[in-house]
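Q: For a teaching session next week I want to show students how multiple molecules come together into a single three-dimensional assembly. I've collected the sequence lines for a complex. Could you give me the predicted structure tokens for the whole thing so I can convert them for display?
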Amino acid sequence: MITVLNIIITGLIMGGIYALISMGLSLQYGVAKILNVSHGEFIMIAAMLTWVFVGLGIHPLLALVLCCPFTFCVGFLLHITIFRWLNINSGTAAAYESNAMLLCFGLYFIFSNIAMQIWGSNPVGFQFMEKSVNLGGAIIAVNKIIVLIIALAVSILFYLFLSHSRLGKSIRAASQDPVAAGMLGMNIKKIMAICFGIGAVLAGIAGTLISMYSQVNTGMGMGYTMIALIVVVLGGMGSIPGSMIGGMILGFVGSIFGYIEPSLSMVAYYLIILVLLLVKPKGLMGR
Amino acid sequence: MKILEGKGVSKSFGGLKAVSDVEFYVEEGEILGLIGPNGAGKTTFFNLLSGALPMDSGTVLFGGQKISGLKPNQICRAGMGRTFQAAKNFPGMAVYGNVMMGALFGKPGRSASEAEQITDEVLDFVGLTEYKDKMVTDIPLSAQKQLEVARALATRPKLLLLDEVMAGLNPTEVEDAMKLILRIRDSGITVIMIEHVMRAIMTICDRILVLHHGAKIAEGTPQEISTSKTVIEIYLGES
Ligand SMILES: Nc1ncnc2c1ncn2[C@@H]1O[C@H](COP(=O)(O)OP(=O)(O)OP(=O)(O)O)[C@@H](O)[C@H]1O
Ligand SMILES: [Mg+2]
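A: Of course. Below is the structure for the complete assembly, covering every listed component.
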């Protein structure tokens, strides 16, 4: 019983993190049409930055806030410079999509190598609310509970932002039909750049949260990129609710296998994808 | 007064001249028909006017201001609305939400309550109120066509481009669509309409422009066009 509770709580935490990073990737792909294989590097950079900030005496929660404008600007600026240039020079939409993915591979190498030069490749970490509490028998560190609450709060806020704010509505319209959206007065290029920036912010928040309860290192990014890719396929390309649900499912699977045999988690993830693609090729929430 | 005029408007796709050196004008308050056989370049012409595609050469003035080279959102905000031949709606939103997008973003600085009011008015004007909570995939074709028009109207345009809004409709529905277009014109909006339904074109258009292989081959009143030798030859040659 206590084991089950432990698995559930761990599943929720992993699921919350996976949902965050997958929503970010989904937004970047669904609206900006960029399959960002350097997504995990934004997670890594924010995680490492948080560690640096904490070393300077800044509280981790303040570091979380500080990382957001930083990751947004990096994403936004990358989009209005090299991605726009690439778009103009790619000719067709299909060519742009594949070129953009290649560019992201380049970004992956650049970001991870620069980070490695600066910080090396050893795991680093800091202490943050490490006391444990007893939740109905399950012993859970307070930092994990805080991470879970923040991850869920950010997911819900993000969802409300998309469904209720003016900008959020234009993002949804642009993801469903950019040409029609443009003809109704929406500035598609600006929306795409903002989406790429928001995707980076969501990755960055996840990175900071991860650093709050575990050690981080400069090579951590790609693993998370793979997970985000799996979740986005699982949830349905470009579907934000799909990413939330898919992230939760994968988090629980990860949690269960983490208990049985951690080295099988990745295999389990791919099996789920395989089965899902056979049953519902467009993903859980795909249209 | 001319609300829209253009010179030398051209667009090629590889070696294919889809629109070739078209000179045209649209009088404020009129309904201009745009006809021509399949593949004549009519939709491409709309794409050039609305900024959906960049033109290779040529200039277009809208209300005296140069709009060629502007982005679609800028042209929309200058007062041009359009519909799409293959309906381009937002499938994840209800009918109301679709129209709301035009109302919210069609002009800068519209408040949510203003946009809601415009949406209600437009839904009522085109006769879509009964479908407003339905998802766009659940409504009949005629309503989907009306939705295209409603969404463009919600931007509050001065000029409306309609791309085959009658395609696939039955005779009664065509009749309704004709009445709707006349009411749109009477509300002060200039209309350019692409249509293959000749009866509709001949009945409600003030003037007609004929495209063939991307070039303008005739221009005139419905009377003149229906008796023009060149036009008759093209259409007979086609079928
Ligand atoms: N984006 C594009 N890329 C390449 N060729 C195109 C593109 N858009 C249109 N064409 C070609 O340009 C020509 C004109 O097409 P267009 O759609 O403008 O014709 P149309 O007059 O609207 O025809 P219809 O009455 O069938 O709608 C066609 O030969 C078409 O195949
Ligand atoms: Mg056409």
